[in-house]
Design a protein that fits this description.
Layout lengths: L4 H8 L1 E4 L5 E4 L2 E4 L5 H10 L9 E4 L16 H17 L2 E3 L9 H7 L8 E4 L13 E4 L2 H10 L1 E4 L3 E8 L8 H12 L7 E6 L1 H4 L3 H9 L8 E3 L4 H7 L8 H11 L12 E6 L6 E3 L7 E3 L15 H11 L14 E4 L7 H11 L9 E4 L4 H9 L2 H7 L3 E2 L20 E4 L14 E4 L2 H10 L11
Helix pairs in contact: 2-5, 6-8, 12-15
Length: about 475
């Protein structure tokens, strides 16, 4: 019997199998940030031990950092204390830190791939649920809790039960203006925010193979939003070409050796999955959410569901969500007024996302009354945007290009959406209060978000394209 991509990597990393229990899994790369690491380091210090393999840990500051005036002291006390603790802990334990002011600083799931740290066949963890992003490279990548962060710092291993396996096949060509964010929002809308619970998902099919690495990262990033433990895509020439030449990528003879191994990382033809889904790419249109979980999404031309048209178990959730969102069942989502546009987060803050937005808004102006924040995912992305003149295009359109950080993805820093205001966001979660107390979030692609910024309402971007 053949093996899946997941099984090939998992089995190679088992240090010990507990009879009838979890596996002790070796971790190749551990990413940490300022929010979930302080308690883990405190645990190490109380036990009088050091980080076991500090060279396999990479740290950055992202969640709580301001995205304006990063050269100044952080205003919010808790944020400042967490960032200061990260600096202190990394210095004491010999961990590489890309903090504020460092040319490699940025969102943890953006800097790993762009620096060539993230590679096929790896096991990767971070105290952050969207670690699944790195699975786009054919890696087993998943989020862990603070106690597990301490476990990995102390042992370079973590205990994990093997998840069930799901494959989602997307075949065919995508329609005009449909991008990777639309693909994953469509999948989640079809199987629900819990539809992949207990599974690790592999995405495959011609539509997936046609995507860039940055687009693949967007899809794997949001695997967690349908309950999956993580998501992954088999590496191919697109993957190898993306990694080659990056700062920490293998070189010379090591590159050839790694490449030969990476080319074995795919699911065998006779491999078995616990669950398999098939989707026609032609069915997908630009997507947007209307509710308070990522599964509450519809095509931009569709109407908000009514209680009569949904599953019995979801009826009370629909009513509660629509009350919070101030929307009406059965009403069209297109034309809904918006107040803020946020383009950023570990889901959509890479240079490809910014290029997409700049290409669309060039020569256009934002609508009056709409505030637009464009937040690059890293200093590298910010630098590239300036070198390519993207910053000037955005400024001419009335968009504000800020500095790198998680920003308005989550209400944990200064970039919050005011209560009652509507924000079209390229981030990954639309929970109540996610972007600030009382904020109303509609998730969409960078293209759909940019279209709303120009018109001031939810818009079918296809109507504005030549």
């Amino acid at each position: 019997m053949g093996k899946t991509l997941f099984e090939k990597i998992w089995e190679k990393h088992i240090v010990k199998q507990v009879d009838g229990g979890p596996s002790v899994l070796y971790i190749d790369k551990h990413f940490i940030h300022e929010v979930t690491s302080p308690q883990a380091f405190t645990g190490l210090n109380k036990r009088g031990i050091k980080v076991f393999r500090p060279t396999q840990t990479v740290a950055t500051a992202d969640h709580n950092v301001p995205t304006l005036n990063q050269h100044l002291p952080i205003k919010e006390e808790l944020s400042r204390l967490q960032v200061e603790a990260l600096i202190k802990n990394c210095a004491e334990h010999g961990v590489e830190l890309y903090g504020l002011g460092h040319p490699f600083q940025g969102i943890v799931h953006v800097i790993g791939p762009e620096l060539g740290i993230t590679q096929p066949g790896m096991t990767i963890v971070c105290g952050d649920s969207h670690t699944s992003t790195h699975g786009a490279f054919g890696a087993i990548a998943f989020g862990i809790g603070t106690s597990e962060v301490e476990m990995v710092l102390a042992t370079q291993c973590v205990m994990q039960s093997k998840p069930k396996l799901m494959r989602i096949n997307i075949e065919g060509e995508l329609n005009k203006a449909v991008v990777s964010k639309d693909i994953i929002l469509y999948i989640i809308s079809k199987i629900s925010a819990s539809g992949a619970t207990g599974h690790f998902v592999e995405y495959s099919g011609s539509a997936i193979r046609s995507l860039s690495m940055e687009a693949r990262m967007t899809i794997c990033n949001m695997s967690i939003e349908m309950g999956a433990r993580g998501g992954m895509i088999a590496p191919d020439e697109t993957t190898f070409n993306y990694i080659k030449g990056k700062m920490f990528a293998p070189q010379g003879a090591e590159w050839e050796q790694k490449l030969n191994y990476w080319k074995t990382l795919y699911s065998d033809g006779d491999a078995l999955f616990d669950k398999e889904l098939f989707i026609d790419a032609a069915e997908i249109e630009p997507m947007i959410t209307y509710g308070t979980n990522p599964g509450m999404g519809i095509g931009v031309t569709q109407k908000i569901p009514t209680v009569e048209t949904i599953n019995e178990n979801d009826k009370s959730g629909l009513q509660k969500s629509l009350t919070y969102m101030g929307l009406q069942e059965g009403a069209p989502i297109k034309g809904q007024k918006i107040d803020y546009v946020f383009i950023g987060s570990c889901t959509n803050s890479r240079i490809e996302d910014l290029r997409m937005v700049a290409s669309f808004v060039k020569g256009k102006k934002k609508a009056n009354g709409v505030e637009v924040w464009i937040v690059p995912g890293s200093k590298q992305v910010e630098k590239q945007a300036v070198e390519e003149g993207i910053d000037k295009i955005l400024a001419d359109a009335g968009f504000q290009l800020r500095q790198p950080g998680c920003s308005a993805c989550l209400g944990m820093n200064e970039d919050k959406i005011p209560a009652g205001k509507y924000c079209i966001s390229t981030s990954n979660r639309n929970f109540e209060g996610r972007q600030g107390a009382g904020a109303r979030t509609l998730l969409a692609s960078p293209l759909t978000a940019a279209a709303a910024a120009i018109t001031g309402v939810v818009t079918d971007v296809r109507e504005l394209l030549n």
